[in-house]
Amino acid sequence: MRATVIHGERDIRVEEVPDPVLRYGTDAIVRVVAACVCGSDLWPYRGVQRTDSPHRIGHELVGVVEEIGTEVSGLSVGDFVIAPFYVCDSTCLNCRNGVSTSCLNGGWWGSEDGPGSSLDGGQGERVRVPLADGTLVVVPGTPSDELVPHLLTLSDVMGTGHHAAVSGGVRAGSTVAVVGDGAVGLCAVLASQRLGASRIVAMSRHEARQALARSFGATDVVPERGDEGVARLKDMFSGIGPDVVLECVGTKESMDQALRSARPGGQVGFVGVPSGGPELPVRTMFGTNVGVRGGVAPVRGYIEELLPEVLDGRLQPGRVFDLTLPLDQAAEAYAAMDERRATKVLLRP
Amino acid sequence: MRATVIHGERDIRVEEVPDPVLRYGTDAIVRVVAACVCGSDLWPYRGVQRTDSPHRIGHELVGVVEEIGTEVSGLSVGDFVIAPFYVCDSTCLNCRNGVSTSCLNGGWWGSEDGPGSSLDGGQGERVRVPLADGTLVVVPGTPSDELVPHLLTLSDVMGTGHHAAVSGGVRAGSTVAVVGDGAVGLCAVLASQRLGASRIVAMSRHEARQALARSFGATDVVPERGDEGVARLKDMFSGIGPDVVLECVGTKESMDQALRSARPGGQVGFVGVPSGGPELPVRTMFGTNVGVRGGVAPVRGYIEELLPEVLDGRLQPGRVFDLTLPLDQAAEAYAAMDERRATKVLLRP
Question: What three-state secondary structure class fits A34?
């Protein structure tokens, strides 16, 4: 089959690789219907994370079950499934505590070092899914083509935006600012609206993303950043700032801006992968009582909550995809996101 | 009148100083009935915080109102009052949000730079209380002498221990570990029990404090620290750690231990004044989804909640005082706490 392999900085190739086969009784083989490029895939693409040797890449996918192992009981061949961006058993203590990203038996896509990980990623024709009963969520029936992008966001960005909002404690009436206008930031706007926030500020200076943010529920758009962005936010909320700030970037500057913008006693919900940024200023947090909570998003547990609203059309997070390419053009997909020509690219094998 | 003045490292003196007088219509003059030494007073005492010139010290007190300014409406001469360790108006946006330590008009004891601060502290015979209506809480009637230590803890340590527990999200059934066996740590144990924690581990290697922790509700005592302490805690809670860890010290080591002990998705509630420790490891927090929340405790807002239980004897946080001295022996009070001969010293003017 064909799959995407990263060879080094800005070197993405689609190559012929061995077809995946069942290795454990808990595995399933899934034919990928749609996959995508994640903002975090850009870290190795840009060389911020070093690629020592060529390896598979990708971790967001939806598809159809083609084979199941002898121990798989909750799936059938032909099921349409959503795979989260990680592998989990959905039964261990951490999974039951809602932190399936810390699954005691789970793992990750793209490296094969045990029963909880898979060499395959989403950016290919097929994947071996470990711990398939725990990892995959079945979508009832056969979803229409129009639904596919929306379903695909449940594998990562929509669940991650939702996790930012949940970690920030967004509830009915909350005032919220979202730092970051990538796909996750936009989904955080949508999630905040869904949770009943009374006012949502999107921090963005990109016209198309501002428009999407507004249609996702943003009541205000602030293009300023850094000190100016903080000052604008404070001004907009009685001089003290919004209740919650959602950090959806992961740089030193974005976290700093988030922490300084939240009102005293407020909360920062963060999901931006910290890209070598500094540590959190604990004395500032102490003085302002601004809490920080978040991390790698346990999206598996959110799929069941969000799926019905995607299926009935109330939630349309798939609108973050502004480019669709065939798998063979994966290199162009990365370039388009890297150069900010696209917010999020969908790949069709 | 006589009041405590710090002159430098390990140089505490009780001196004759001018009697306080009303300066603003919102002031009250309070005769101090009992005051105490705070763990945070030890930072300047030990020279960790530099003392450039002699100044008053102390910020925990209960007493009797002797005079009120023309704008004070909620207090009468003769009222027995509790003063929190800071000054606040109890009406601004931040106060209404439950963060009176960030009061827009408030301030601190021991420095006189506006209507929201007072040169006086608790460790003297009298204090000028700014924004008296907002700052002071009236205790009904005339409390017995036995009640005074318990009431005094509401000015800081009991409210601060409670804030740790609230910030950590302790609720019925939570599993909790408390790092720090000082007065605040012990009060955090008591607060966790009050909030319904199912299991409370006190981290302590001090026999008398272990015993007090147990009588405050600790179900377990762990003397190990650092890596060993983390391993013990993980072991005790199914290998993953407790839901909540309350950090009540403020050093690099204690915060590190707290962050590494909490289970994935858990929470650290912190109230230890960060003493030049490092910043928080955001990548660790990202990977584990352990949140961090806390800071300088808005105890003013907790007094009304805790006071009834102190008055009827259900809550006895004053048991943290293990030494009572006359004001004139303030220097010995500091030395006893510094050398850990006493957990918390009460001063009687």
Answer: strand
Residues of chain A with CATH 3.90.180.10: 2-156+299-348
**A298 contacts on B by Cβ (under 8 Å):** 265, 289
Check CB contact under 8 Å for A255 and B282: yes
What pLDDT, on the 0 to 100 scale, is given for residue B111?
80
For residue A276, what pLDDT band results from cuts at 50, 70 and 90? low
At A112 the pLDDT is 78
Residues B205-239 have pLDDT tens digits of 999 999 999 999 999 999 999 999 999 999 999 99
CB atoms near residue B316 (< 10 Å): 18
Task: Express each pLDDT in B247-278 by its tens digit.
Answer: 999 888 999 999 999 999 999 999 988 876 66
Partner residue opposite A265 with nearest CB, options B97, B240, B255: B97
For residues B310 and A67, give the distance between their C-alpha atoms in angstroms, rounded to a whole number: 65
Q: Determine contact: A263 vs chain B, CB below 8 A.
A: yes
Q: What percent of chain A has pLDDT over 70?
A: 99
Q: What is the average per-residue pLDDT within A111-136? A: 91
pLDDT band at B112 (very low <50, low <70, confident <90, very high): confident
Contacts of A217 (CB under 8 A, 6+ apart): A189, A190, A192, A193, A194, A197, A200
Q: What is the average pLDDT across A42-60?
A: 92
The CA distance from B154 to B231, in Å, is: 34
B 1-60 near A (Cβ less than 8 A): none
CB-side neighbour CA atoms (13 Å) of A312: 5
Q: Determine, for residues A98 and B265 on separate chains, whether the beta-carbon distance falls below 8 Å.
A: yes
Place of tokens 């001295």: B325
What's the rounded mean pLDDT across residues A113-139?
93
Is the CATH number 3.20.20.30 carried by domain B2-156+298-348?
no
Considering only the top CATH level, what class is A158-294?
alpha beta
| pLDDT value of position B264 | 98
**Residue of B273, B278, B296 with shortest CB distance to A289:** B296
Expressed in percent and rounded to 5, the helix, strand and coil fractions of chain B are 30, 25, 45
- Ranges for all domains in chain B classified under CATH 3.40.50.720: 158-294
Shortest alpha-carbon distance between residue B6 and chain A (Å)? 24
Q: Helices B226-236 and B252-261: crossing angle, nearest 10°?
A: 20
Is B105 in contact with B149 (CB distance < 8 Å)?
no
Asked if A298's CB is within 8 angstroms of B293's CB, the reply is no
Edge-to-edge strands of the sheet including A220-222? Answer: A220-222, A199-203, A175-179, A244-247, A267-270, A291-294, B291-294, B267-270, B244-247, B175-179, B199-203, B220-222
- Please count the residues of chain B: 349
Topology of domain A2-156+299-348 in CATH is Quinone Oxidoreductase; Chain A, domain 1 (3.90.180)
Taking residues A46-51, what's their average pLDDT? 90
Q: In sequence order, what are the beta bridge partners of B30?
A: B65, B127
The Cα–Cα gap between B144 and A248 comes to: 55
Closest approach of A283 to chain B, Cα-based (Å): 6
pLDDT of residue B277: 61
Residue A88 has pLDDT above 80, yes or no: yes
The whole-chain average pLDDT of chain A stands at 95
Task: Determine which of B49, B293, B302 to mutate to test the interface with A (most A C-beta atoms within 10 Å).
Answer: B293
Q: How far apart are the CA of A169 and the nearest CA of chain B, in angstroms?
A: 12
Indicate yes or no: CB of B291 within 8 angstroms of CB of A289. no
- Location of each CATH 3.90.180.10 domain in chain B: 2-156+298-348
Sequential DSSP letters for B151-195: HHHTTTHHHHHHHHHHHTT--TT-EEEEE--SHHHHHHHHHHHHT
- Assess whether pLDDT exceeds 90 at residue B279: no
A-to-B residue pairs, Cβ atoms closer than 8 angstroms: 132
Kindly report, residue by residue over A319-328, the tens digit of the pLDDT: 999 999 999 9
